[in-house]
Amino acid sequence: MSSPSELTRESGAKAFDGHQYVYNHESSTVGCKMKFGVYVPAKAEKERVPLLIFLSGLTCTEQNFITKSGVQRLASEYGFIVANPDTSPRGCKIEGDSDNWAFGEGAGYYVDATESKWSKNYRMFSYVNDEFYGLLIKNFNVDPNRIGIFGHSMGGHGALVSFFKRPAQYKSVSAFAPICNMSTSEWGVDAYKKFFGQDENLWKQYDATELVASYHGPKPHAPILIDQGSDDNFLAKHLLPERLINACEKASFPIYFREQAGYDHSYYFIMTFLEDHFKYHKKEFENSK
User: Fold this and answer.
1) To the nearest whole number, what is the mean pLDDT of the chain?
2) Fewest CB atoms within 10 Å of the CB: 17, 43, 201, 284?
């Protein structure tokens, strides 16, 4: 497969019946070179297939998901293109963007910052849901009517926020151990003060718990699937799933929350339940025809 337009291929390897690629491109949205992984099954060489976008968590690059999750076997079996972007702009040389593992490089939180120091480059919400989304449809054999989004931790937050803010773009959403209430979590408060200043109304615009209360888009056919490990070290201070569950109940929004006994926050947890998420998205795609 030759490199699609606007993209530079960095690597490619056959895996199962398809290929795992890594590409880079110059992003006009975040003002730097961005990398992403994309698995293309053999089926996509002949026809348009569903797309799943996976958003990774804090400290991750485009490599973590494609090297640790075992996603290639499932993407091949289900016939899905699976694409995963980096988690932030890199190399922008903004003072303070690499001082803390929980903020800045590797920690863009999938928001569009409004504070002037960050607003030029830290526009990951627009990158994922406009530039990256469009790039995938343009350059790969994607069925635009069957696109889902999911993610882990910070990326689970990003997936939920993307779904609630852009309901016309996604047929399905799921998450592993998402940060459910960013505007009150310890990670979120620290990051959002920098990205948005003191206006907490701006913080709430990128908070799944807040967004579900005002969501007016189409509801999924089956409750949104969220998996959470019971032994996750970040559960109490940072993830706060009970707040999203309560907000969904008040809004009569369907959610299926599964606490998985003994599992932590790692990719061992993700790989264990990843196929359940593929099954979930597959059913949503079939129901949306």
Assistant:
1) 96
2) 201
Distance CA 153, CA 54 (A): 11
Query: Does 1 fall in a domain?
Result: no
* Cα 184 to Cα 244: distance, rounded to the nearest angstrom: 12
Q: What is the pLDDT of residues 237-277, one digit of tens each?
A: 999 999 999 999 999 999 999 999 999 999 999 999 999 99
* Assigned token pair, 40: 């293309």
* Phi, psi values for residue 131, rounded to 5°: -65, -55
Pairing of strands 8-15, 142-152: unpaired
pLDDT tens-digit readout, 165-177:
999 999 999 999 9
**Count of C-beta atoms within a 10 Å radius of residue 252:** 7
The catalytic residues are 153, 232, 265
Q: Is residue 82 part of a domain?
A: yes
The H or E element that residue 38 is part of is: strand 32-40
* Domain count within the chain: 1
Residue pair 148/285 in contact (Cβ under 8 Å)? The answer is: yes
- For residue 80 the two structure tokens come to 């899905």
Percent of the chain with pLDDT over 90: 95
Which CATH number goes with the domain that contains 80? Answer: 3.40.50.1820
| Residue from 249, 173, 277 nearest 217 by CA | 173
In a domain, 217, yes or no: yes
- Rounded to whole angstroms, the Cα distance separating 195 from 108 reads 9
